[in-house]
Design goal:
The chain has one helix and 13 strands; from the N terminus they run E-E-E-E-E-E-E-E-E-E-E-E-E-H. With 126 residues, it is mainly beta. Strands 1, 4, 5, 6, 7, 8, 9, 10, 11, 12 and 13 form an eleven-stranded antiparallel sheet that branches. A two-stranded antiparallel sheet has the order 2-3. The longest helix is centred in the last third of the chain and has 4 residues. It is globular. The chain starts with 8 loop residues before the first strand and ends with a helix. The relative contact order is 0.26. The model has no long low-confidence stretch (mean pLDDT 95).
Protein backbone atom coordinates (compact mmCIF):
# COMPACT_ATOMS: atom_id res chain seq x y z
CA UNK A 1 0.00 0.00 0.00
CA UNK A 2 1.36 3.46 -0.88
CA UNK A 3 1.93 6.04 1.82
CA UNK A 4 -0.70 8.77 2.36
CA UNK A 5 2.02 11.46 2.13
CA UNK A 6 4.89 12.02 -0.32
CA UNK A 7 7.55 12.23 2.41
CA UNK A 8 7.48 11.84 6.12
CA UNK A 9 9.03 10.28 9.19
CA UNK A 10 7.16 8.12 11.67
CA UNK A 11 7.53 9.80 15.04
CA UNK A 12 5.10 7.61 17.01
CA UNK A 13 4.67 3.95 16.22
CA UNK A 14 1.61 1.71 16.52
CA UNK A 15 0.89 0.28 19.97
CA UNK A 16 2.50 1.23 23.27
CA UNK A 17 4.70 4.31 23.29
CA UNK A 18 6.80 4.88 26.43
CA UNK A 19 7.98 8.31 27.52
CA UNK A 20 10.89 7.64 29.86
CA UNK A 21 11.21 11.29 30.89
CA UNK A 22 7.55 11.57 31.94
CA UNK A 23 7.30 7.89 32.95
CA UNK A 24 4.11 7.43 30.94
CA UNK A 25 2.81 4.89 28.46
CA UNK A 26 0.30 5.81 25.76
CA UNK A 27 -1.45 3.61 23.22
CA UNK A 28 -1.37 4.66 19.58
CA UNK A 29 -4.00 2.99 17.40
CA UNK A 30 -2.14 4.05 14.27
CA UNK A 31 1.08 5.88 13.43
CA UNK A 32 2.00 9.56 13.53
CA UNK A 33 3.97 10.86 10.55
CA UNK A 34 5.85 14.19 10.70
CA UNK A 35 5.75 15.83 7.28
CA UNK A 36 7.64 18.80 5.87
CA UNK A 37 7.30 20.31 2.43
CA UNK A 38 4.30 18.89 0.57
CA UNK A 39 1.42 18.58 3.08
CA UNK A 40 -0.93 16.88 0.61
CA UNK A 41 -2.69 13.74 1.90
CA UNK A 42 -3.81 11.05 -0.56
CA UNK A 43 -6.04 8.04 -0.21
CA UNK A 44 -4.05 4.82 0.07
CA UNK A 45 -6.77 2.78 -1.71
CA UNK A 46 -10.07 3.09 -3.58
CA UNK A 47 -13.09 3.60 -1.33
CA UNK A 48 -15.93 5.81 -0.13
CA UNK A 49 -15.64 8.70 2.34
CA UNK A 50 -17.72 7.38 5.22
CA UNK A 51 -17.12 10.10 7.85
CA UNK A 52 -15.66 13.54 8.35
CA UNK A 53 -15.56 14.59 12.00
CA UNK A 54 -13.69 16.75 14.47
CA UNK A 55 -12.29 14.81 17.44
CA UNK A 56 -10.42 16.16 20.48
CA UNK A 57 -6.74 15.30 20.17
CA UNK A 58 -7.06 14.45 16.46
CA UNK A 59 -8.65 17.58 15.00
CA UNK A 60 -10.37 17.09 11.66
CA UNK A 61 -10.56 13.38 10.87
CA UNK A 62 -11.55 11.68 7.62
CA UNK A 63 -12.47 7.99 7.35
CA UNK A 64 -12.55 6.06 4.07
CA UNK A 65 -14.26 2.66 3.82
CA UNK A 66 -12.60 0.21 1.42
CA UNK A 67 -13.55 -3.27 0.23
CA UNK A 68 -13.83 -6.14 2.73
CA UNK A 69 -14.70 -3.73 5.60
CA UNK A 70 -11.24 -2.16 5.73
CA UNK A 71 -11.13 1.51 6.74
CA UNK A 72 -8.37 4.10 6.75
CA UNK A 73 -8.36 7.03 9.14
CA UNK A 74 -6.56 10.32 8.47
CA UNK A 75 -6.26 12.75 11.41
CA UNK A 76 -4.92 16.26 12.04
CA UNK A 77 -6.14 17.52 8.67
CA UNK A 78 -6.09 21.29 8.16
CA UNK A 79 -8.01 21.14 4.88
CA UNK A 80 -10.38 18.51 3.54
CA UNK A 81 -11.06 18.47 -0.21
CA UNK A 82 -13.70 15.71 -0.40
CA UNK A 83 -17.23 15.21 0.97
CA UNK A 84 -18.91 12.38 2.84
CA UNK A 85 -20.28 9.80 0.42
CA UNK A 86 -17.74 10.61 -2.31
CA UNK A 87 -16.09 7.73 -4.16
CA UNK A 88 -12.31 8.08 -3.92
CA UNK A 89 -9.59 6.50 -6.04
CA UNK A 90 -6.21 5.35 -4.78
CA UNK A 91 -3.79 8.29 -4.90
CA UNK A 92 -6.55 10.90 -5.00
CA UNK A 93 -5.93 14.01 -2.89
CA UNK A 94 -8.26 14.10 0.12
CA UNK A 95 -6.81 17.07 2.01
CA UNK A 96 -3.79 18.72 3.59
CA UNK A 97 -2.16 18.29 6.98
CA UNK A 98 -2.76 21.05 9.51
CA UNK A 99 -0.19 22.54 11.86
CA UNK A 100 -0.04 21.41 15.48
CA UNK A 101 2.22 22.25 18.41
CA UNK A 102 4.57 19.49 17.21
CA UNK A 103 4.55 20.65 13.60
CA UNK A 104 2.79 19.09 10.62
CA UNK A 105 1.77 15.61 11.71
CA UNK A 106 -0.59 13.14 10.04
CA UNK A 107 -2.23 10.55 12.29
CA UNK A 108 -2.95 7.46 10.15
CA UNK A 109 -4.86 4.30 11.11
CA UNK A 110 -6.00 1.14 9.33
CA UNK A 111 -8.98 -0.82 10.61
CA UNK A 112 -10.13 -4.30 9.59
CA UNK A 113 -13.79 -4.00 10.60
CA UNK A 114 -13.12 -2.51 14.08
CA UNK A 115 -9.74 -4.18 14.67
CA UNK A 116 -6.80 -1.75 14.50
CA UNK A 117 -3.95 -2.85 12.24
CA UNK A 118 -0.31 -1.75 12.36
CA UNK A 119 0.01 0.56 9.31
CA UNK A 120 3.76 -0.09 9.05
CA UNK A 121 2.97 -3.71 8.06
CA UNK A 122 0.73 -2.48 5.21
CA UNK A 123 2.71 0.47 3.85
CA UNK A 124 5.40 0.12 1.18
CA UNK A 125 8.87 0.08 2.74
CA UNK A 126 10.87 3.26 2.17
Amino acid sequence: MNWPVARGTIIRKFGENKNLRLRTVTINYGIDIRVSGDLTVKSVADGVVSAIEWLPGYGSVLIITHKDQFRTVYGHLGEISVREGATILQGETIGKIGESLEGNILHFEIWNDRDNQNPEVWLVKR
